[in-house]
Amino acid sequence: METLDKLLQGIYGFTWQNAVMLLIGCILIYLAIKKEYEPLLLLPIGFGAILTNIPGSAAVGEHGFLTVLYNAGIVNELFPILIFIAVGAMIDFSPLLKQPVTLFFGAAAQSGIFAAMLLAAGANLVWPGVFSLREAAAIGIIGAADGPTSIYVGNLFAPKYMGAITVAAYSYMALVPIIQPPVIKALTTKKERQIRMDVDYGIEVSKTVKILFPIVVTIVAGIIAPISVPLIGSLMFGNLIRECGVLDRLSQTAQNELGNLVTLLLGITIGSTMVAERFLTWNTLLILSIGLLAFVFDTAFGVLFAKFINLFLKHKINPIIGACGISAFPMSARIAQKIAQKEDPTNFILMPAVGANVAGQIGSIIAGAIILALLS
Are the C-beta atoms of 56 and 316 separated by less than 8 Å? Predict the structure, then answer.
């Protein structure tokens, strides 16, 4: 009978919470495969949620491989750092260097982080003690539209909400094509959306500048916020590998093999944090709601800031690219181009939009570092 009990442990321990989490895991897999919403991450996250919510699963626990991966890659922030190296190797900062004004959009769009943080902290007025200040800060990072930064800060400030924070960050990144267009159209006129922009203003960025840029950014950002060095340093190291011109094999490895492998391990490990007891709470629903509002705030602040900048510019900026200040690279830039071409098929704003998009990568890291510095 004892042997039979062990064999039937999964059946005896099965609860409705397990059933709901298995369903959520299947939904994430469906969205990844059928809708192609961030499949590289949502599919591993969904399957990781299934593995961890099977009663008595040996995949989690002291010797479970998911727990081993969590301790080896999340607790010590290794996976997010490696992801940033891969992302840095994929990014071309030339559009940003040709139009430095787009750097301000990357800063303006991060306002959603602080708006979401205030919402999470303000929730204590309705439900006292629902989130601590650090947990509110970690939830606010969802507004950066930057998965690795959300994971990095979430692990330090709100480990028990890691599953909800990560799922919110990556799910809403996948929904950028649905979230951003209505906000952009509500805040701009047809005439504004038809504004044309020079692709590069005839500026050629030299190889020397491309090499110096990641080095200078790392030093300046590190001096201003030393706690940002792991994040900004890994991103810029990956970019330096790309731009130096003598490490092509390493650059390709970082962009492909490293990026794919770490994304795979990161996704399935994050899925293992979606334990029913922690995930199926009102707090999770609140986090998802705040995350959605954060993405809306990011988009709105970016567009409004672009319209404000136009008050002082002779050559007007298409305010659509202000929405690209979020870190959803390069999806947000593609959406901006699609909206502009819908208004005028001959209007091409992709490169300025990419400049704002890569600025968002830097802005999200700096904003996350500021929060870490203030609350650590």
Answer: no
pLDDT value of position 199: 64
Please calculate the CA angle 127-371-148 and round it to the nearest 5 degrees.
95
With 90 as the cut, is the pLDDT of residue 359 above it? no
Rg (CA), the chain: 21
Are 290 and 120 in contact by the 8 Å Cβ rule? The answer is: yes
- For the CA atoms of 322, 325, 326, 328, the dihedral, rounded to the nearest 10 degrees, stands at 100
Q: Using alpha carbons, select from 124, 122, 118 the residue that is nearest to residue 143.
A: 118
Give which of 289, 327, 290 is closest to 110, Cα–Cα: 327
Rounded CA separation 74/52 (Å): 16
Size (the chain), residues: 376
CA neighbor of 81 nearest in space, from 166, 149, 139, 165: 149
Let me know: does 275 contact 49? Beta carbons within 8 Å: no
User: For residue 337, what are its two tokens?
Assistant: 């181009």
Residues 170, 159 contacting (CB under 8 angstroms): no
CB 139 within 8 A of CB 123: no
- Could you tell me which of 326, 24, 359 has the C-alpha nearest to residue 150? 326
CA 338 from centroid of its chain's CA atoms: 21
- Mean pLDDT, the chain, rounded, equals 86
Torsion region of 56: left, alpha or beta (phi above 0 gives left; psi -120 to 50 gives alpha): left
Amino acid identity, position 114: F
Q: Where residue 7 falls among pLDDT bands split at 50, 70, 90?
A: low
* Residue of 103, 95, 104, 105 lying closest to 198 (CA atoms): 95
The answer to whether the beta carbons of residues 317 and 310 sit under 8 Å apart is yes
Residue 296 scores a pLDDT above 90: no
Report the largest interatomic distance among the alpha carbons of the chain, rounded to a whole angstrom.
83
DSSP 113-164: HHHHHHHHHHGGGTSTTSS-HHHHHHHHGGGGT-HHHHHHHHHHH-GGGHHH
Which residues make Cβ contacts (< 8 Å) with residue 20, sequence separation at least 6? 276, 280
Full DSSP string of 209-266: HHHHHHHHHHHHHHHH-GGGHHHHHHHHHHHHHHHSSS-HHHHHHIIIIIHHHHHHHH
Say if residue 4's pLDDT is above 60: no
Tokens of 91: 């990014």
Q: What is the pTM of this model?
A: 0.84
